[in-house]
Amino acid sequence: MNLGSALNTATRSLSNTSTQTSVVSQNVANAENPNYARRSTHLEYDALAGSQIASIQRTTDSVLYRQSISSIASSDAQSTLVAGLDQLKTIFGTNDYELSPAVIAGQLRDNLSAYAAQPSEPTLAETAIASAQDLALSLRSSSEAVQEVRAEMDVDIAANVSSLNDMLARFKVINDEIVQGSYGSSDVNNYLDERDTLVKEISSIIEVRPVTRSGNDMVLYTMDGTTLFEKSPRTVTFETVPAYDALTTGNSIYVDGVPLEAGEGANSSAGGSLQAMLQIRDDIAPMLQGQLDEIARGVVTLFAEADQVGGGGADLPGLFTWTSGTVPTAGTRVDGMASSIVVNPAVLSSQGGDPTLLRDGGINGASYLYNTEGAAGYSERLDDLVTSMDEPIPFDGTSLLGTSKGLINFAADSLGWLELTRSDATASMETKEAYAAQIEQTFSNATGVSIDEEMSLLLSLEQSYKAATKIISVVDELLQTLLSAVR
Amino acid sequence: MKTSFVSSYATQTSMRLIVQKAQAEVQQLQTEAVTGRHADVGVALGGQTSNAVRLHRDFEQFSTIQDTNSLVENRLSSAQAALEQSSQSAQDLLETLIIAKDATDDGLRGVAVLEISDSLRAFTDAGNLTANGEHIFSGINTDTKPLVDYFETGNAAKTAFDNAFSTYFGFTQTSASTSTITATQMSDFLDNTIEPMFTGTDWTTNWSSASDTNMTSRIAREELVQSSVNTNGDGFRSMAFASTIALEMMNIGLGEAAQSVLVDKAIDAAGKGVSGIDDDRTTLGISQARLEKANNLLQVQADLTKIHVSEMEEVDIYEASTRVNALMAQIETSYSITSRLQQLNLIDYLR
Fold it and tell me: What φ, ψ does residue A44 adopt, rounded to 5°?
């Protein structure tokens, strides 16, 4: 040891302190940046330089990071699902479900029973027929709105897929910088921040599992194991369907040629918004459509007219009819029926029809006439219609609402199914969002910046800087003393 | 090296999240406190929503049935009043006939005929009563007047009788030969010619346009009652029979024996008329009693339904408003903590 080396060490210390100070200053500058991981300096002994040098490191916590990615993915998926379900619920009106087939079918029943109590009153016939038109309209417009939701989901999927592809392209640029920088030992920390942020953003669209390989190279896999990124991005392809109806099947999203699966359940298995949108488009909305179709089939069947003269004629649509103009097979769903159901023009006075046919039957000709006496006070047919709306009829089991039920009960259960799903999904969303916020906070606590800590660090840096300058001045004095002794 | 496990960002965010969440909840609770219902019934009830919707529909159905029941009640009580009047006419007829039984001179018989025509008129009017635009004794043929007006010129009932009379006896009621009619002839004429015209199918061609099918009304979800009687009932037929024969033959100068047969027959028929109409009144009375029971039951059902619905959908307003106050306090605390935390900064102490 000599004075020269003491001077060297002190100078080194000054340089280290300034590096550390600049790190502190960078940390403070990014204190409010959620995607910034705190940098710290490590002092290492460098044999070449013969002294300690400061190296900058980036705080990471890979376990928390992966949890954070997955919580973001499932919370975003769940809120996408809830938004879709909210949209479907809005179709049926507010808290009173005033636009739902269940409520309007109830009104039709009440108006029919008022008409049955006074069958000679033509205005009551008009009132009953008006609520029948409301019911047909409700079925048609709900069915149209359900398909609109599917079409909107399709457009949103396309937009998400295209931004996913953009993000993957950006990911490649950043990843390349990191790999090159890591080989060349330049500071890649800012790129690492950016890459981690990007992975989070990608995960909110499609959940990924990041794997870091040698040279800081990152590979992204989807949860079913398909490669999304390795050295270069894999293409994610999707084609929209221009218009939706009950018979339309939406196209799959292909990740590297593998179709992406839709999420399942109210507490959705979906990771990222894409799977949740697929779930709405391919699972929930079609199920609701199927239930509407079943309600429509039930309505046509209940109001159908039977042959009254024993001529063996088939039952034919009465008050309600649809495109095919037949009474469909019992207990078997007819896809898209709800979108074409109308009130039979034969009873509409606006179209030259006769509203009293509702009371008398005979919409399909004389063989289907119930009121053979032509009596103005005939109420039997009306009363039968009223009671039949509560009597069990067969329904298609694939609609998940049971196979034998009264029409109004079936329609109410359809609302129940939707609200059960929405209620469960909303509860799960709250849980998942709280979890994501918690993880975010824990992650930020682990890797983020505390200004107070930086400030106290700054104090000690100030002290060590002062100490180093003191050493230099002392050595300077010693050398001065030595030199003057020589003189 | 990292020494602390609190980041400035997390501290700020946690405050922000608390406030955000509390504000969302305040908004929801405010709606609930004002409306008294869950802000989002569907989310609150989940699968129970179908029950809530069903109960609402049930309630509506009960009110509809209650409304239509008042209509049925109106029909039934109008019918009762009319039947009471008919029964009274039949009673009057009976009394007139009993008095007239002993009347021998034409003057007294003429007075009796006048009284009989009055009671027939009253009887016809009662039978043709309308309520709410419906002929209540027409069965389901509510748009047609059920009973023919016997005093209208050229009506089928009178013509049919006149034809039967002249066919049987070979002369008309105004003929002087009426005194030659024997008791046996009269008895045979009444039993085998005239009575079948009232008990058989001729009744519906000559006298009544009512349908045999009565009105039925649903007075409860599961209960259908008969809500009218029609003029094809035995009471109406017997009453018309008694009136017709008395009116047409009482004062046509019949012999003593024939007159006695006639009046006895008429008294017998009028008695049947009274009891027949009283039977109809009983039938409707039963319906009225069932209606009243059904109405009471409907009221109970409607009340229970309402209670069930409110148990499901309603929130405790007081709880909601206290929760709002608590949340406001929480938000305020959060604000003041945030501002205190902002002051609590090492920088301020580094001078």
Answer: -125, 150
